[in-house]
Write a structure and sequence with these properties.
This protein is mostly helical and 190 residues long. It contains eight helices and no strands. The radius of gyration is 22 Å and the shape is flat.
């Protein structure tokens, strides 16, 4: 697909930052989640009013985000490396969890904020993870499927039921309606 830009799910870094706030008590780890939540609220408010965020406001948010990352990186780089005083090993030095997170956010600079200018980009991809969770649970509990056709049937049924739920359809209707007439005959669940 040409022109599709990646976006990062902000739920995972938020969880990592929460752990950093609790354990390391770093100021950037406290400020960044608050900033992202407020930016998400601003984007959601603009979307409900069928407007887009102003370019000047987007530039301000982006600059603030970069300043917080720079503050965190400066703090991380001022600390002694992990394992200092140990015998030298080959390879790069171990970094703290917060340092790795900040480097990842810096390297994918625009991806965490992709939801701001594009209202169709979600803040998190939790819905996709929820859709995959049932399959992963099935794989962990029973060890998988006995045949490829059984796995394909399970995936097809889960897909149809998930789509019906998201569209507000009666969940039993997709299972009893021929696929060709599916969207014509379905109505929202009551």
């Amino acid at each position: 697909m040409v022109g599709v830009l990646p976006a990062l799910c902000n739920a995972h870094p938020l969880r990592e930052r929460k752990a950093l706030m609790d354990l390391e008590k770093e100021p950037w780890a406290r400020a960044l989640p608050r900033f992202l939540r407020r930016a998400c609220q601003a984007a959601h408010l603009a979307q409900t009013q069928q407007q887009s965020l102003r370019a000047r406001f987007l530039a301000w948010l982006s600059a603030r985000y970069e300043r917080m990352l720079a503050q965190g990186l400066a703090l991380q780089e001022s600390q002694p490396p992990l394992g200092a005083g140990r015998s030298t090993r080959r390879g790069r030095l171990r970094r703290r969890t917060g340092h790795n997170l900040l480097l990842r956010l810096r390297d994918h600079n625009e991806a965490p904020l992709r939801f701001l200018p594009a209202p169709t980009v979600p803040f998190t991809n939790n819905q996709a993870e929820r859709d995959l969770r049932r399959m992963k649970v099935r794989q962990k509990i029973s060890g998988g499927f006995r045949s490829d056709s059984g796995a394909q049937t399970f995936v097809t049924l889960r897909t149809v039921l998930s789509t019906a739920r998201k569209q507000g359809w009666n969940i039993l209707a997709p299972l009893t309606t021929p696929p060709a007439t599916l969207t014509q005959n379905l109505r929202p669940a009551e």
